[in-house]
Amino acid sequence: MNMGLDFTEVTFQSDKTLKWYRSSDWAERGFCGTCGSSLFYRLVEDPSKMSVCVGAVNNMPSDVEITKEFFIDKKPAFYNFEGEREKLTGAEVFALYGAEEDT
């Protein structure tokens, strides 16, 4: 499970070890080429829209809130966040991005 923050502007201190992996027809994932940590994913058609893994963000604001949950139908039964927000199944996520579900 991954928690991410949506950004349209990201600044890297260095991108020397940054590696990209095309994980589907519609998205690619960014990894650290040294340690393998998953850092973010972005849409192929609009790379300016990027979801950054929470652990990769320096100086995280204290007022960040969860606004959406994706792939809610794939989460473990014991894993629940408090509060109400939009919850999307895998099929709804793929429909949102106009993509076909990987089989």
Discrete helix count: 1
E-strand count = 7
β-strand percent reads 25-35%
Give the helix level as a range of percent: under 10%
Q: What strand order characterises the main sheet? A: 1-5-4-3-2
The low-confidence runs, each spanning 5 or more residues with pLDDT under 50, are none
pLDDT averaged over residues:
84
Class by SSE composition: mainly beta
What would you say about this model in short?
By secondary structure, this protein is mostly beta strands. It is 7% helix and 28% strand. It has one helix at residues 90-96, and strands spanning 4-7, 18-22, 27-32, 38-43, 50-53, 68-69, 86-87.
Question: What would the keywords be for this entry?
Answer:
103 residues, mainly beta, two-stranded parallel sheet
Please describe what this structure looks like:
By secondary structure, the chain is mainly beta. It folds into 2 domains: 50 residues, no CATH class; 39 residues, no CATH class. 7% of the residues lie in helices and 28% in strands. It contains 1 helix and 7 strands. The strands form 2 sheets. It has a 5-stranded antiparallel β-sheet with strand order 1-5-4-3-2, with no helix packed on it. It is globular, with a radius of gyration of 15 Å.
